[in-house]
Structures are given as structure tokens and as C-alpha cells.
Amino acid sequence: MDGERGEERRPMDLRNWHHERRWRPYRADLHREVARLRAPGFARYRVEVRKDELDDPNWEAEADEEESTRPFSAAMATIKKRVESRKSNPAGDVLGWTPSSRQRLRRAPPLLHLCLMSLVKHGEEIESLEGIPDDLKHKIVSLLCSNRKMNSRILRTYLNGSTTEIHLTDCSWASEDVIQDAFTSCNINHLRLVQLDLSGRCMPDYVLQTVLDKSQYSFPSLVTLSLKGAYRLTDNVLSVLASSAPSLKSINLGKCSLITSCGIISLAEKLNLAELYIDNCQKIDVMQILPALETMEHLEVLSVAGASTVCDTFISRLMHACGYNMRELIVADCHDEAIAAFLEASGGSLIELSLNSIAKVEHQTAIAVAYACHSNLQNLDLSFCRQLTDEALGFIVDNCSRLSILKLFGCSQVTEQFLEGHSNSQVRVIGLTGSILDEMEMSKGEETDKGDEM
């Protein structure tokens, strides 16, 4: 049946079939021509200049004209025009957002969250996790870690039996022997996700090396690995890790202070990564690893928060190479105009965006987020962005209809005008009221639930 008209489709007779075959080559030529005409708007160019062209006074003007046709350059030009307009006419700098007069009801914490927190409060009484569904088991263990109630006895019962995921959000309580025993007691061949965050105390090179030495492909099924805060790991073990986990798509090395640019380049050469988190790795120069990032055709998520070498050139080149695949970008200490231009050029595909602690985020970024990210953005972190006004936040929230989580930790400038005045009923604002730890735990739970739904 035809999905729109409800009419029964008739089979093509032989004459129509021959007619279709006759015209098919011409249609192919037509599609190729359309693609050729549209390609300049999306292509990434590499300009090669001959020596004789350098002496031509018209060459630079022609190069500038070609540059202006690229998506990022066009967006950058738009942003600069807005900045100049704002400087020349400060009085006209109005977003046009007005608070709603509708009263808003505050939501109570989910019942499941209250039950889990009660269980965690008495975590020392937990004797076994047997029979509990895996998703709830992972949530319980994550909450125990976050509330410093985790211990080796609970870890043993957590890993008892066949498991495909390990969620340890805080391993600061564990010793090197505990981690080694944990991997000995479980079948690592079936592991698809391993999270060992804040594992600096228990994860030097030799511990991970011992696990990897079990076989040539120690983690054949591993897709996601998080070693955030493993400050004793070095580049030496990354090359072995890449060879032992050939299916790895996502790796988090945030705050691994001994990892250098060479280690990241080695990973990029051996793995087809879709997600890379290297925030606050002070020995990594993002400009040095940029050529390697540009070869990562399937890169969707990148975190370089806290990297002092992030600059306009880095954002521009990264966008040209990977921009149309990116769905999450976490940056810090970057020029605000470059961020706004990136969002305007390719922010439509972003589901999550973190601009945490970027002091320059203000008016232009608010416009870019509201206009470019309105269709897909679900999670936005603007914590410690203290130049954003109530009007700018309201403009973002009311335009981004799918936004469900907005983090505003440290934004003391936000008032009730925004909190009670925005019209997005599904967004949850986190970080302004109540206990910070409780707010963070609830946000983690909601993000996990959102991920499960997707």
C-alpha cells in the first residue's frame, strides 16, 4: 500500500522496465552534475601555490575570495559583522527574549533515585548483588563509588558471574592488588565497557600491562574505555593497549597528566576512534595532534577542555576535517568568535555541548547556540560562564525545544527572571539550588536514562 495515499502499488510492466533502464544512465549523469555543483559548499580545500603565483598581486585577493565561500569562513565573517555592529550600536543589542508570566512547578526527585540513595546510605550492609538487573547494578555501584562507600567485598560480588560492563566512577579507594584481582576474577574477553575513573593510585603502567599480557587480544570485544584520572599511566602502555583492543571506539584519558602528544598520535594511527577525551592533559599540544585528528574520519566526540593550546586555527581546521560528523565538542580557553562560528557552521548535529568555564562565552555564543543547535541539542553545560545574562539563557532555552538538561554550576548571576520566566517545560536546570552533590548525582542518572532511551 502507498504510505501516503493508501493506494495499492502496481508492479512495473516490461515496457516501463525497459524505459527505466534506458533513462538510468542519464539520471546518473544528472546526479553527478548536481553533486559537483554542491560540493564547493562542503568540501575541504588544500591550496597549493606555485612560485610564480606568489609574485601575482591578484593572487591573494583571489585566495581570499575562495576562502570566503567555505562554510566556516562564511560563519566567521557573520560573527565578526555582529561583533562590529554591537560595538557601533550597543543600544541595539537586544535578543528579544521576555520572561513568561506562567507559574512553574518544581519537580520532585524520581522515586527510583530516592530508593537507590537509601540503599547507598546503608551500603556496608549489602551482601550480594545477585539477581539485580545489570542496569540497576551499575547504577548502585556508581553511586557507591561517588559516595565513597565502595570496597573490595562489594567489588567481588559486582563482578561475580558473566559481565560485559564495569562501571567504577571512583577507584581512589582501591589498591593495585584489588584492580589486578578484579580482572583475574572476570572474563575480560566479553567486556565491552570498562570504566576505571580516578584510578591514579591503583593504575600504574605495570598493572595494565599485566592484564594486557594475558593474550595478544586481551580485550577483543572492548568498545569503550575510561581511565580518567590515571595520572601514573604513560605513553608506553597506550601502544600495547591499542593492539590489545582492536574494536575500541571510545577512550577517556582525561587528567592523565603523563600522557603526551606522541601517545595520542599512536592511538590515532592504530584505532578508528569515534570518541576521544583528553581534557586537562597538560603535556598534550592539540596543534601537534591536529594532523592525526584530521585523519579520524568517524570522530564524533572530542574533549580538549583545559588545553591551553586550543585556538581559532585548531577549531577551524578541525571543523573542516570532522565538523559534519561531530555531535559533541568540549573546549576551553578558546576565542569566543571561533566557537560561535563553529556552532553556526555545523552545530545542527550536536546533541551535547559543554562550554564549562569558558569566560568569553556571552552574547554571540548564545545566538549561535539558539539558532544553530535548536533542533537536536539535549544536554548543555554552561557552568561558570558568568557573562551570560538571564536574557541570553532564556533565549537559548526557549529556542532549543529538545533541551532537557542545562548545567549552570557557578553561575551566580542567574536570577529568578530566567528560572521562572523561560517557557521550556521539559528542561531541568542543575547547579543553582540544593546540594551540589545531590544535583550532580541526579544529573548523572538523568543522562544515563536519556542515553538508554536513545
From TrEMBL:
InterPro entries linked to this entry: FBXL15_LRR (IPR057207), Leu-rich_rpt_Cys-con_subtyp (IPR006553), LRR_dom_sf (IPR032675)
Any one of the GO CC terms: SCF ubiquitin ligase complex
Top-level taxon in the UniProt lineage: Eukaryota
GO biological process, one term: SCF-dependent proteasomal ubiquitin-dependent protein catabolic process
Annotated ranges, domain F-box/LRR-repeat protein 15-like leucin rich repeat: 283-424
Descriptive protein name: Transcription initiation factor
